Recover the amino acids of this structure.
């Protein structure tokens, strides 16, 4: 999937991601402020998360429950080496069969399973983004 979208289209983009993703581990690539967390909030809502979701910048991982599943939202921006990821038990999360949404996956790329979905978001202008999904 490759698409340009604006904020008013984010629900349909999230629906397409969930429909087209072959994996429950989704790595979100994009520069700071491009809208990764905003998109993840919509995805979480569509999966059935009823509580308020926010970025786990300081906690590194937030856990949310749906009626059927668990969702882990990672913000790996502050992770400086793989040892830090091991310290939070990253492998337990990644191999739990739960949804794992990972911002800044490049900071833990050697620890990620081969079978993941990658989302690349680019800013075209203040209102418009480009998104590319790769399974």
């Amino acid at each position: 999937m490759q698409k340009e979208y604006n904020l008013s289209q984010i629900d349909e983009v999230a629906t397409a991601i969930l429909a087209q993703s072959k994996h429950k581990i989704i790595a979100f690539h994009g520069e700071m402020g491009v809208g990764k967390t905003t998109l993840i909030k919509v995805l979480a809502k569509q999966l059935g998360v009823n509580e308020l979701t926010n970025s786990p910048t300081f906690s590194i991982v937030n856990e949310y429950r749906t009626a059927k599943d668990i969702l882990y939202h990672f913000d790996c921006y502050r992770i400086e080496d793989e040892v830090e990821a091991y310290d939070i038990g990253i492998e337990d999360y990644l191999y739990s069969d739960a949804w794992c949404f990972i911002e800044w996956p490049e900071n833990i790329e050697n620890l990620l399973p081969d079978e993941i979905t990658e989302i690349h978001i680019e800013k075209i202008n203040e209102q418009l983004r480009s998104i590319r999904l790769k399974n």
Q: What stands out?
A: The mean pLDDT is 95.
